[in-house]
């Protein structure tokens, strides 16, 4: 490590502000439409005076989000590519999630470590001890949360579609399935399989709409239930936990996996899909930094666990044929499957 390496870390929060401002103020969209503009032209189009325009462009260019040549600016090639193929819509939701849900509670990271709990939750009204129940008091943030969660999942769930082997599976129970984003994607890829999304009432009403919009209401049903307090509906040969077992403690995850085991028929399978950290203890960087959100906000013990921890819980519950399937993209998502 060099002292220069410290700069990105010391000012990491400022780096995010540059990305967020470039996005919110429409800089990247503008430069996509009109590349090679100078400071004055960019300021005029963004409605900014010269000083803030210079501050913004210095930051985005130092971070390689934009480039400058002879006083004229354009987007990094990657940003232009993502705007053109519309993956930028996913990135803008991820930025909105970080800015509106994660940013303030992150300031409680030190206290969250000291007290070994999600101290950042104090920034959301209510007395429930997880984020999802507190969001019910804030319909505006709840909508934003599920919209952004959908984008996080759209970014990574091609890995789920690619790795989840649903051969012979007829009915999948998607536990904590959110607005149905993964059930919809999997249903499109597996035309003979039916899905049930089980989630809290706020998510379920969004899921109904999304499923109807995608024309899949006949194959995807929704159930409003609490994944801990309520028993799981029966008759499923696959239970999916997508971005779910990152929220809870090892003991709670054992409870959920036991419930899945009980609900499955003999030979049924469970799929665990989410971002994983490495057992080596030094990365990947995505998992290491995303853990700040998990440590401060969703629930008391949320963690991006490493692969081996899931495998240990699965075998202790009684599952066999445990199979680890990492994705091969820039996010550390992967699927672990196992059989009852
Ligand atoms: C991180 S989100 C993942 C959503 C979806 N599976 C995905 O991958 O996009 C966690 C989901 O679990 C749901 N959830 C949390 N606690 C729950 C509970 N006690 N009962 C039912 N659903 C719950 C939340 O409402 C949310 O939709």
TrEMBL record:
PROSITE patterns named in the record: SAM_OMT_II
Keywords: Methyltransferase, S-adenosyl-L-methionine, Transferase
Any GO MF annotation of the entry: methyltransferase activity
InterPro entries: COMT-like, COMT_C, SAM-dependent_MTases_sf, WH-like_DNA-bd_sf
UniProt keyword Kinase present: no
Keyword flag Methyltransferase: yes
Domain (O-methyltransferase C-terminal) ranges: 131-319
Entries under Pfam families matching the protein: Methyltransf_2
Superkingdom: Bacteria
GO biological process: methylation
UniProt-recorded name of the protein: Methyltransferase
């Amino acid at each position: 490590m060099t002292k220069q390496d410290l700069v990105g870390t010391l000012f990491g929060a400022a780096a995010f502000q540059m990305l967020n401002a470039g996005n919110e103020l429409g800089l990247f969209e503008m430069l996509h439409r009109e590349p090679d503009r100078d400071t004055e032209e960019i300021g005029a189009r963004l409605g900014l005076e010269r000083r803030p325009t210079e501050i913004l462009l210095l930051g985005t260019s130092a971070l390689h989000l934009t480039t400058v040549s002879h006083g004229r600016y354009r987007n990094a090639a990657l940003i232009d590519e993502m705007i053109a193929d519309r993956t930028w819509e996913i990135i803008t939701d991820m930025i909105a999630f970080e800015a509106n849900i994660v940013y303030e509670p992150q300031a409680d990271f030190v206290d969250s470590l000291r007290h070994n709990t999600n101290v950042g939750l104090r920034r959301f009204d209510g007395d429930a001890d997880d984020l999802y129940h507190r969001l019910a008091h804030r319909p505006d943030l709840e909508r934003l949360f599920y919209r952004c969660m959908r984008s996080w999942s759209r970014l990574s769930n091609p890995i789920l579609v690619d790795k989840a082997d649903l051969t012979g599976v007829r009915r999948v129970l998607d536990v904590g399935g959110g607005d149905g984003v993964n059930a919809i994607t999997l249903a499109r890829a597996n035309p003979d399989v039916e899905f049930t999304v089980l989630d809290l009432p706020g998510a379920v009403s969004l899921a109904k709409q999304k499923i109807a919009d995608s024309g899949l209401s006949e194959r995807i049903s929704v159930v409003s239930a609490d994944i801990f307090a309520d028993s799981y509906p029966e008759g499923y040969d696959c239970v999916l936990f997508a971005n779910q077992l990152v929220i809870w403690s090892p003991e709670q995850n054992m409870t959920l996996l036991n419930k899945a085991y009980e609900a499955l028929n003999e030979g049924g399978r469970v799929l665990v899909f989410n971002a994983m950290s490495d057992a080596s203890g030094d990365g990947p960087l995505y998992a290491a930094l995303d853990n700040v959100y998990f440590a401060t906000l969703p629930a008391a013990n949320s963690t991006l666990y490493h692969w081996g921890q899931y495998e240990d819980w699965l075998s202790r519950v009684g599952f066999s044929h445990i199979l680890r399937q990492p994705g091969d993209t820039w996010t550390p998502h992967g699927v672990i499957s196992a059989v009852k």
